[in-house]
Write a structure and sequence with these properties.
Layout: H1 2-19, H2 22-42, H3 48-67, H4 71-81, H5 92-120, H6 127-173, H7 183-216, H8 224-242
Helix pairs in contact: 2-3, 2-8, 4-5, 5-6, 6-7, 7-8
Amino acid sequence: MAEMKLMTIDSSETWKILLSQTEGRDKLYRTLQYACKLVRGVDAGSSSLSKKSLALEQILGNARQVLRLAKWVNIWSKRMGQRSFGLKGQNSIGATLQLLNDLGNFLYFAFDNYALICKTILDGRDANAYQLRGKRFFLLAVIAGFLDSLWKLRNVRKQLSLVYERETSARLETSSSDKIDTGNTSHELQTLHKQQQEAILGIVRYGFDIVVGISISRKEQLSPTLTGFCGVISSLVAWYQVWPRKPVTTV
């Protein structure tokens, strides 16, 4: 009973932490928004369910647009806080892709925020045009994110290969009577496997988001079924990435 109670407390605390964050609420709204789009695609027509799904999808879309207000400031602050853009050296490809990802998101948020101002304060005639421009920069951001994740996965696998080769060489050079200290290697492998998992999650998330980006950046979007499905999958992966986790302690 004590274990069950502890699990319940941990679960409720996790949700409380997640939903207290703007990013966590946005991921929840996005999942529901694209789930509504998926329902509209599956239940095509003028049925009551399709109409309700469209209404809820629009409400969630508007709520997310409000949550995105001034998010470009976070990207600006991050870039200004760095001493350099990091485009020199061995990791220049990765740094360039990260810069393109930040640039795409920055312009996406900036145009999206201005579109919201047009709709709420100004006459609203240019709102859709600015929002469409922003979505095209969103597409740039997710393509750069996808390529950056592929690049990270390539580098991590190269490092893993080197670690395994080093460990094999150490075992061959050490006599069977000697003990090998594998503590540092084990910690290094654990870190690299975690980085590999993050890179794979990034590939999956951005891969599905590329389809979403292509759809929403067009005047005539792709089918609601395809866009909704890809949006739900990418949202669930993003949801997993921001899910609060307790630090693992080893004894």
